[in-house]
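Field log, afternoon session.

UNIT: design team B
ACTIVITY: writing a sequence onto a fixed backbone
BACKBONE:
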């Protein structure tokens, strides 16, 4: 009898446990469904996307974690000795370059898009050409002109302008970053509705008042987007700043790595990461306060405004900026390249450098195209907090300087994956982490044109999510994926600080040779590599011009 009672009790307990487990399972399923706002992706696709995003963010996370173990003494010493000066140098340079580049970009966009500037159609694309000239290449050209042993010294006895100064760095960075604002602002000006200006004129406003009270508010989002791109670029730049002997966080981090003081480099990196995050946060807060809308139902193209007596001064200003940012640097490089080629610069070593660049950039482009597809598919077709986190982690390397990505990879490879340390694959992996978001952006724009109904039809035939992606979606968005790969290839070709920090001994690329030869003032050997980089960089410019 006792045994029967015990069995009944155990049976009841088992039923209760099973009921609890079943209820708990249903509860978890309901939470999981709510997270995905309905249908969830397959586990294969989700695990793949999550794994890729963690790998993309791991070097940055590793740098932050290692900085926490640097010790209070090292933190205090750097905060007392180095950080105040680096902070002032970095912030002042970022602010001044951003302000000047925004001013130039907005003025040029207004003259080209809204005024009867002679040759408007030609200026629309040639004013964007400075984007194909890496600032460190531009620095080489201007050192040749204004340096202590430059052309002006040969002609005048002394240079009228000290290129190795704060304002020299400002000048070089401004000349090669203003197109960010020029392109984005030009795009907004094309879409502006004339009805608002007509309404303002009916209230008695003149052209200047309309610009400040009507046009400028509509342009603020575009100006802000261009400004944030410029600010982030200045924060991350190493080549031009180092060539012009100016010290910012990026240069200091690189020199700490070169001095094998990686712990101090992590501390400085965390400071720079904090600056980057702060700028992004301020930009997001400002964006929420400047939303402006216009109706497309009664859209009218804006009028072309006559410049009148200001036509020729405007043309001279536009031509002067173009000459300083494109004509002069290219002319200097062509002069040195002619001398270099005559002295045998295009020897087997040069083509070896070109082959190295081609190899690592091609690997980065190919892998980026492959890895970007699951991320953008998850974000587009399965929106949730999980895919948002995956997307943000994947972008983390793009928002930070290449030197910090390199520092994270040095820690990871030297301590955990030694067979990758000091190999060209380490360089390729750094390129992937830095530039895969460019492939994601291009692929995402193509995916947005593919109807989700195609996915639903494929799934109704029994295909899991990952097969839908590879059999249905990828063939549809392949042109966008290839365009993104081209962007990654060109960006990798120009990348300097990550390449310098991670390259194995004897493995030089075109960007590295430009750096080495220019720092030793052997400009005729640096110029051919610089011109090849510029020529290849024309590839993404065509894509950007069609976009904007």
């Amino acid at each position: 009898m006792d045994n029967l009672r015990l069995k009944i009790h155990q049976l009841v307990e088992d039923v209760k446990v099973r009921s609890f487990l079943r209820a708990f399972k249903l509860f978890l399923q309901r939470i999981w469904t709510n997270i995905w706002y309905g249908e969830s992706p397959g586990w294969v696709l989700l695990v793949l996307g999550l794994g890729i995003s963690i790998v993309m963010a791991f070097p940055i996370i590793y740098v932050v974690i290692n900085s926490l173990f640097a010790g209070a003494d090292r933190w205090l010493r750097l905060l007392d000795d180095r950080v105040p000066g680096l902070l002032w140098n970095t912030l002042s340079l970022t602010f001044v370059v951003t302000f000047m580049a925004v001013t130039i970009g907005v003025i040029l966009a207004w003259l080209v898009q809204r005024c009867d500037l002679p040759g408007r159609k030609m200026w629309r694309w040639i004013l964007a050409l400075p984007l194909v000239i890496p600032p460190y290449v531009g620095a080489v050209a201007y050192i040749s002109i204004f340096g202590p042993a430059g052309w002006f010294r040969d002609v005048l006895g002394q240079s009228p302008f000290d290129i190795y100064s704060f304002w020299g760095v400002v000048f070089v960075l401004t000349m090669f970053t203003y197109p960010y604002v020029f392109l984005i602002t030009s795009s907004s000006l094309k879409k502006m509705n004339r009805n608002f200006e007509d309404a303002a004129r009916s209230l008695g406003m003149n052209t200047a008042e309309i610009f400040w009270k009507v046009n400028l508010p509509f342009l603020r989002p575009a100006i802000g987007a261009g400004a944030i791109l410029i600010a982030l670029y200045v924060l991350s730049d190493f080549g031009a700043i180092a060539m012009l002997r100016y010290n910012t966080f990026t240069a200091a981090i690189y020199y700490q790595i070169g001095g094998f003081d990686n712990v101090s480099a992590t501390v400085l990196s965390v400071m720079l990461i904090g600056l980057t995050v702060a700028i992004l946060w301020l930009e997001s807060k400002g964006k929420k306060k400047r939303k402006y809308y216009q109706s497309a139902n009664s859209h009218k193209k804006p009028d072309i405004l006559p410049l009148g007596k200001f036509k020729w001064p405007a043309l001279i200003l536009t031509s002067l900026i173009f000459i300083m940012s494109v004509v002069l640097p290219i002319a200097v490089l062509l002069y040195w390249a002619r001398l270099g080629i005559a002295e045998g610069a295009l020897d087997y070593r040069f083509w070896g450098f070109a082959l190295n660049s081609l190899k690592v950039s091609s690997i980065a482009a190919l892998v980026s195209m492959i890895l970007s597809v699951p991320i953008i598919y998850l974000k587009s077709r399965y929106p949730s907090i999980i895919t948002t986190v995956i997307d943000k982690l994947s972008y983390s390397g793009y928002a930070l300087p290449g030197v910090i990505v390199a520092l994270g990879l040095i820690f990871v490879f030297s301590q955990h994956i030694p067979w990758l340390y000091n190999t060209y694959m380490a360089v390729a992996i750094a390129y992937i982490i830095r530039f895969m978001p460019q492939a994601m952006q291009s692929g995402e724009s193509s995916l947005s044109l593919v109807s989700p109904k195609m996915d639903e039809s494929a799934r109704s035939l029994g295909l899991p999510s990952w097969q839908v992606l590879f059999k249905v979606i990828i063939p549809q968005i392949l042109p966008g994926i290839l365009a993104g790969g081209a962007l990654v290839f060109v960006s990798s070709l120009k990348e300097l600080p990550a390449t310098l920090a991670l390259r194995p001994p004897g493995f030089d690329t075109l960007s590295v040779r430009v750096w080495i030869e220019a720092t030793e003032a052997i400009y005729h050997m640096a110029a051919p590599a610089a011109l090849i980089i510029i020529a290849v960089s024309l590839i993404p410019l065509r894509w950007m011009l069609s976009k904007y």
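LOG NOTE: Residues 2-35 form the longest helix (34 residues).
NEXT ACTIVITY: expression trials, pending approval
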